Amino acid sequence: MIRAMIRAAALLLSGMTAAPGWSAGMLQCVPYARIVSGVDIHGDALNWWDQADGRFQRGHKPKKGAVLAFRAFGPMALGHVAVVSRVLDDRRILIRHANWSAPGAIEEDVLAIDVSALGDWSQVRVWHSPTAQMGARTNPTFGFIYPAKARLHDFTPDPALGASIRFARVDAGRWEEEKATPDRRMSVRIAQAVAEPKPARRGRTPHLRTDPAILTFADNAPAERSLSAIIADVKRETMLN
Asked: Is this entry keyworded Zinc (predicted)?
């Protein structure tokens, strides 16, 4: 039992500090994004931006159905691609992508926020489903690749594309109902480290509790959660389940 908890904790830790560079036996972000967006580009995600030149329009404004292309950064050696499923406002979008928070994981309609200084989506933070909070890492991007027709295609898991798991789809409407609002009491704690929100209640849609300005400041000194703290979370989840 303890070994299983430690393995689960290690998975959560890797999701917070690493990037989508998993085994080829798992569903990768590229085939998922290609199917969902209809943007017919092949090869590693880090090459999508250059491959789109002359074939698809590119830009720095989010649009439904567009592919957000991530640069190679740190452990994210091959880059990453995600599909915009909804634009909430100038700084917040919902995305659908694979192989981000856990090996082969499919996450649908989860939050991504622009934390760039110029508001051009060159730096983003992405929701981490296993821990129900925004990821601590700031991720550099190239921009958005726009398909000829803005349409979201259904994705049906295919063993030929690798093993996958599917997190429960987030109710996109709830993000609108629970818009991000500055929490001044929390801002003091964030000035020292990224605040750890209370564990999300089961069945409740997670939401962002701080504004982009605070998050940008928090990114300057992200906190690294200890393994013991993560194991405690896993034990708590086990008891709830």
From this structure: no
Q: List all residues 6 or more positions away from 132 whose beta carbon is below 8 Å from its beta carbon.
A: 197, 199, 200, 206
Domain that holds residue 29: 2-240
Of 12-16, 90-94, 228-232, 233-237, least confident by mean pLDDT is 12-16
d(CA 105, CA 22): 11
- For 129, the token pair is 């489903």
Q: Are 120 and 29 in contact (CB under 8 A)?
A: no
pLDDT tens for each residue of 200-221: 444 444 434 444 444 433 333 3
Q: What is the CATH number of the domain that holds 216?
A: 3.90.1720.10
Gap between the Cα atoms of 142 and 76, Å rounded: 14
Tokens of 76: 């994210």
